[in-house]
Design a protein that fits this description.
Low-confidence stretches: none
Strand content: under 5%
Order of helices and strands: HH
Shape: elongated
Structural class: mainly alpha
Radius of gyration: 13 Å
Distance between the termini: 28 Å
Helix content: 55-70%
Mean pLDDT: 81
């Protein structure tokens, strides 16, 4: 995600992505499955 300098809302979106990924990554076999929403 591209972020501009002095735009904290963009940094918040990046932090939210990593929070969601770290929280739910064990439910998916790969990063591609995480992006497509494919669970096993």
């Amino acid at each position: 995600m591209i972020a501009r300098i002095k735009h904290p809302q963009t940094n918040g979106k990046v932090e939210k992505f990593f929070d969601c990924y770290n929280r739910y990554r064990d439910d998916f076999e790969s990063l591609d499955d995480f992006f497509t929403g494919t669970t096993t």
